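Structure tokens
________________
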Amino acid sequence: MNPKRITSSLALALLVSVLCTWLVSRKMQAPAVVARALPDARYVAPSRQLQAGEVLRSENMELVAWPVSHPVDGAFATTAEIAGRVVLFPLSKGQPIVDRDLSAIGSGIGLAGKIPDGMRAIALRSDEVVGVAGFLVPGSHLDVLVTYRSGTSPEPVTATVLQDAVVIAAGHQMEPDPEGKPSAVTVVTLLLTPEESERAVLASAQGSIHFVLRNGGDTSRTHDGPMQLSRLSGEAGPGAEPGARMAPRHAASVNRENRIEVVLGEWPQSDWQQHGKRQGESKPSAEQAVPAVELAARPDGGPRP
């Protein structure tokens, strides 16, 4: 075998391998060079952790760099766009602020900024018992019951007037306790529609209000009628009309005579043995005796034939 030809083949193979290696490395490095060449986007983010209800100001906002290849929908590029708006949810430092995290423009600060369009916030009185031992916290779901007396029936009635209402504030708290501790409050604020607000005000004016806590994931609604005292005691069936009473039970009539015995003189033999003899009295003489008169009556009250 010719040594020159072997040497030429090896040199050619080495040259080809070097060329291929250079082309592959160029292909692999090209995207990285392009990515580094692209500028970063800048979004408005909190300069510290923000809690719900806080107002955005220049001192609690900053601009953060964000990869332009991953844009954030609804984010803001300048702090002037959102200055004065209220935070609806807790935000972490460096997290780009988006429009859904903020209250509507012109909605004000505090609780008003958390009320969605078309909804209303109404406060109802509460205590440790009505408020489920303090476990009603912002975000809880509950039913509202009222106990009252209607004009058509003297019986007290308990009815469900609201179902799956959301607590927007408990006392002055608009966020639940981070550790989940209950807090006894005297006022609970619910997020309701205008019609539900009217029902809540009317119910609170008619009788006593009670809150019934429910699972936040339970959105089912019941259609049971109001509960009356007669139904609670079992005197009326579940299908009875409101205020209906069951007919009183009468004892079975007994077919027997009512016997009335009037004694004017001598005791009858049987009665003297039961009364006079027992009490040590002597039987009256024949001269002192007056015949006994018996009156008997039929069960219907008429005289005995």
In short: The helical segments are 3-37, 194-206, 229-232, 269-276. Residues 258-297 form one domain.
